[in-house]
Amino acid sequence: MADDFTAKLDIYLDGELPADEMKALDIHLRSCPSCAADILSRVQLKRAMQSAGKRYSPRPEFRQRIQRKIAARPRFSLGRVWLTATAAVAVLVVAGLVTTYIGRQRLERELAFSEVADLHVVALASPNPVDVVSTDRHTVKPWFQGKIPFTFNLPELQNTEFSLVGGRVTYLGQAPGAQLIYQVRKHQISVFIFQDHVVSPALRSNSGPLKHVSFNLQSWSEGGLRYVVIGDASPDDIGKLAELLKTEARS
Amino acid sequence: MEVEEERLTAATFEELAMPLFDQLYNFAQWLTQDRTEAEDLVQETYVKALRGFSSFQPGTNFRAWIYRILRNTFLTSRTGLKASATVPLDADDGPDIPAVAGTPETILIKRSQQEILQRAIEELPLHFREILLLCEVEEMSYQEIAEALSIPIGTVMSRLSRARKALRDNLRQKLHGR
Q1: Dihedral through CA A80, CA A85, CA A90, CA A95, nearest 10?
Q2: Contact yes or no for A209/A234 (Cβ under 8 A)
Q3: Model confidence pLDDT, tens digit, residues B105-163
Q4: ipTM
Q5: Strand A207-212 relative to strand A215-222: parallel, antiparallel, unpaired?
Q6: What is the Cβ-side half-sphere exposure of residue A240, based on CA atoms within 13 angstroms?
Q7: β-strand A175-184 against A207-212: which pairing, if any?
Q8: Shortest CB distance from A70 goes to which of B17, B38, B141?
Q9: Partners of A231 in the beta sheet?
Q10: Exposed, middle or buried, A208 (CB in 10 Å: 0-12/13-18/19+)?
Q11: Among A177, B158, B167, B170, which is least packed, fewest CB within 10 Å?
């Protein structure tokens, strides 16, 4: 009986026995220690052969040689291939540069506005947010004389919701500038004025209403000065104050 | 249009043939026992297969097809002609004996003597060596082996059985000197 099975053990291990014979052998193996031992040793040899048989590896340069020999070559003229390849590379390079440029610009702008937001917060957190305390623009403006290397006009606020709280000298990127604090209802808004050419290029782009870390802000340039209005008031209020400042500066 | 078709054919061939590169090379060096000859054999196989790819029937077994090309190419080479001089007699040469007798395999595993096993495979006649490699290393089904070697399935079974017996005898001799 066992001899019948012995002849089939390798075929069984190769998975090539018909299903019914496979089943019969399965049952036999459970009750025949000699066949079970036999099959174990055949399995061991099979495994040893699998690893011993994977003995030789091709040299990488040989693989490349064959790869080149059989590679599916597109049949355009060489000129067209170069043109296509050059165009593709150029598009990639330009796209990469544009993406990098836009990304870097955005990052620099974020950093610049963060600095402005910090100045605003630091002033409000100070026990003395302003060095000149006055609601009168004609008091505040002259106070800056000799303290900053430029002068500016402040708008008339009568019949508006805004009131001037005062001003202080501030610095942005080691350049002195004016910080004016306005109030609209319970919100305090900072207006920063710097010479346009000394501020970071990232701040120099004009921007409509913007949101930065929950502050609303507007930035523009007028008469060689850079104005940045920032605060937690609504974009509408920020916009209105910006308009007042712009109108006054132009007058 | 014809040019485009040709390009597509080459692309399909590359897709089917390159994943088999390592194993075809391994098989080639087992057959030739020489690196340079194995490289020549593989290169010729790929060139012939690409040239004859239009005759390959899609849906049939590509692996068996390209192995057959490799083997036929080898058989017509100088080394191949010499090796195949020992014509296989696909006759039954006695009943299979249990593998446990003398347990050469167990001893082999215990000693981890892979080299002995490799030498035993090397020393097998070509027709035993190739069928064992196709079955055990390439894990081809009997049907695939039959296609690759152009022999009937019945012959695959009997030749495999004799190849295994020959290998075990060789191992036994190496390990026990008998």
Answers
A1: 130
A2: no
A3: 555 555 557 888 999 999 999 999 999 999 999 999 999 999 999 999 999 999 999 99
A4: 0.82
A5: antiparallel
A6: 15
A7: unpaired
A8: B17
A9: A189, A216
A10: exposed
A11: B158
Per-residue tokens: B103? 């347990």
Give B89: exposed, middle or buried? Use CB within 10 Å, 0-12, 13-18, 19+: exposed
Greatest pairwise CA separation for chain A in angstroms: 119
Q: What are the tens digits of pLDDT across the range A150-205?
A: 999 888 888 888 999 999 999 887 788 999 999 998 889 999 999 888 777 777 76
Question: Alpha-carbon distance A22 to B114, whole Å?
Answer: 31
Q: Is B18 exposed, middle or buried (0-12, 13-18, 19+ CB in 10 A)?
A: middle
CB distance A151 to A121 below 8 Å: no
Dist. CA B135–CA B101, nearest whole Å: 23
Whether the per-residue pLDDT at A129 is higher than 60: the answer is yes
The residue of A16, A65, A69 whose CB has the most chain B CBs within 10 angstroms, and thus the best one to mutate to test that interface, is A16
CA distance A145 to A132: 12
Mind telling me how many Å the CA of B107 is from chain A's nearest CA?
10
Q: Check B26 against A57: CB less than 8 A apart.
A: yes
Residue located via tokens 């017996």: B165
User: First-to-last CA distance in chain B?
Assistant: 67
**A41 contact residues in B (CB cutoff 8 A):** 99-100, 103, 105-106
Nearest by Cα to B128 from B100, B165, B172, B96: B165
Place of tokens 């017509």: B76
Inter-chain touch A53–B99, beta carbons under 8 Å: no
pLDDT at A207 over 70: no
A163 sits in which H/E element: strand A162-172
Report the chain B residue with the minimal C-alpha distance to residue A11: B157
- What is d(CA B157, CA B164) in angstroms, rounded to the nearest whole number? 11
- Chain A residue with CA closest to B29: the answer is A56
Whole-number mean pLDDT of chain B? Answer: 84
pTM for the model? 0.54
Choose between B96 and B176: higher pLDDT: B176
Cβ distance B105 to A34 less than 8 Å, yes or no, reads: no
